[in-house]
Amino acid sequence: MAQESPKNSAAEIPVTSNGEVEDSHEHGFNRDLKRSLPAGLGLSETQITSHGFDSTKEGVIEAGAFQGSPAPPLPSVMSPSRVAASRLAQQGSDLIVPAGSQRAQTKSGPVILADEIKNPAMEKLELVRKWSLNTYKCTRQIISEKLGRGSRTVDLELEAQIDILRDNKKKYENILRLAQTLSTQLFQMVHTQRQLGDAFADLSLKSLELHEEFGYNADTQKLLAKNGETLLGAINFFIASVNTLVNKTIEDTLMTVKQYESARIEYDAYRTDLEELNLGPRDANTLPKIEQSQHLFQAHKEKYDKMRNDVSIKLKFLEENKVKVLHNQLVLFHNAIAAYFAGNQKQLEQTLKQFHIKLKTPGVDAPSWLEEQ
């Protein structure tokens, strides 16, 4: 018993109920250093030497190779002593922030609510559904009108103007076609007269007995060909102006008329749909449908009124433009034809100057933009 007392005084380390060293700060530091050793060192043995206040003996704690989990212990489990805490405080980069504080930091701050992402496929499907429903209603309205079962909205004054415009367009197209035929035939005649004049001029040089007779005919044919080219220029100018009026101005107005007619069919289709719903029973199921139908009917009614006003305005401006254009072109056509068949070359040339018509010389290319400047 006397021999075991020194050993016990050196080996035993008095601790408190919390597991901390009571008699020395050095013992606490050694124990914390043992706990904080990294697992990757692969040490097979660790020694911690502690010195007592009243003994020169040393206490040695032997430890084998580390076989625990490679993850470091959680900070909430570790309870370092004051010495270890002071040493760890000097290394700011080695401090471990508890997971609870990170969660609190991420949750703090303003919360941003993102807009709901719209699905393009659903949008296209909705557009197809609306288009299909609208097409079905319009087709039903057209069939009903043709069978005499459905009613249609008619603006008598506007419909009369549209019918007159379509009839005039057909007549102007006929005039345009005949004028193009005249231009083609006149071009062939002028070409023939020019060739005939060249033939007469060649014979006047080779036939001495008929030199004067061939010469007169050659000069006449060349003069006719020249006047024919002047008349051809006036006719081509007339054709170009009428073609612009028929195939551009009038056609643009008729496109607006087609849009007006489509708006009228949609308006009548939704009007008929609303009338059918109003004739049926009114309950909790039909009231939302009636309100939606009323909203659609009002929207198509506004569209129909707008298109009707656009057509009225375009018809008014078209009539004014048509009268102005056709007045000038008809005067040109009359004066040119009269001067040509009267043989009045000066009057024919004066007519072209009056309408600022420039003839293109055969076989001569148009001047470049550098020559024009």
What's the layout of helices and strands?
Blueprint (H helix, E strand, L loop, with lengths): L3 H8 L13 H11 L13 E3 L6 E3 L21 H8 L9 H9 L12 H28 L8 H51 L4 H69 L6 H56 L3 H10 L14 H4 L1
Helix pairs in contact: 5-7, 6-7, 6-8, 7-8, 7-9, 8-9
GO molecular function: phosphatidylinositol-4-phosphate binding; protein domain specific binding
Subcellular location: Golgi apparatus, trans-Golgi network membrane
InterPro entries: AH/BAR_dom_sf, AH_dom, Arfaptin_fam
Give a quick summary of the entry.
By secondary structure, the chain is mainly α.
**Portion of residues within helices:** 55-70%
Q: Provide the succession of SSEs.
A: HHEEHHHHHHHH
Total count of strands: 2
The radius of gyration over CA amounts to: 54 Å
The top level CATH class name: Mainly Alpha
Number of domains: 1
Report the structural category.
mainly alpha
What is the architecture at the second tier of CATH? Answer: Up-down Bundle
**Biggest β-sheet, characterized?**
2 strands, antiparallel
What is the CATH third-level topology name? Substrate Binding Domain Of Dnak, Chain:A, Domain 2
Q: Strand order across the biggest sheet?
A: 1-2
Detail the poorly predicted runs: 1-23, 37-80, 92-115, 369-373
Attribute tags:
single chain, 373 residues, mainly alpha, Substrate Binding Domain Of Dnak, Chain:A, Domain 2, rod-shaped, disordered C terminus, AH/BAR_dom_sf, coiled coil, protein domain specific binding, Arfaptin_fam, phosphoprotein
Fold and architecture overview:
- The radius of gyration is 54 Å and the shape is rod-shaped.
- The model is unreliable at 1-23, 37-80, 92-115 and 369-373 (pLDDT under 50).
- It has helices spanning 4-11, 25-35, 82-89, 99-107, 120-147, 156-206, 211-279, 286-341, 345-354, 369-372; strands spanning 49-51, 58-60.
- The protein is mainly α.
- The protein is built from ten helices and two strands; from the N terminus they run ααββαααααααα.
- The longest helix has 69 residues, at 211-279.
- Helix 6 (156-206) packs parallel to helix 8 (286-341), helix 7 runs antiparallel to helix 8 (286-341) and helix 7 packs parallel to helix 9.
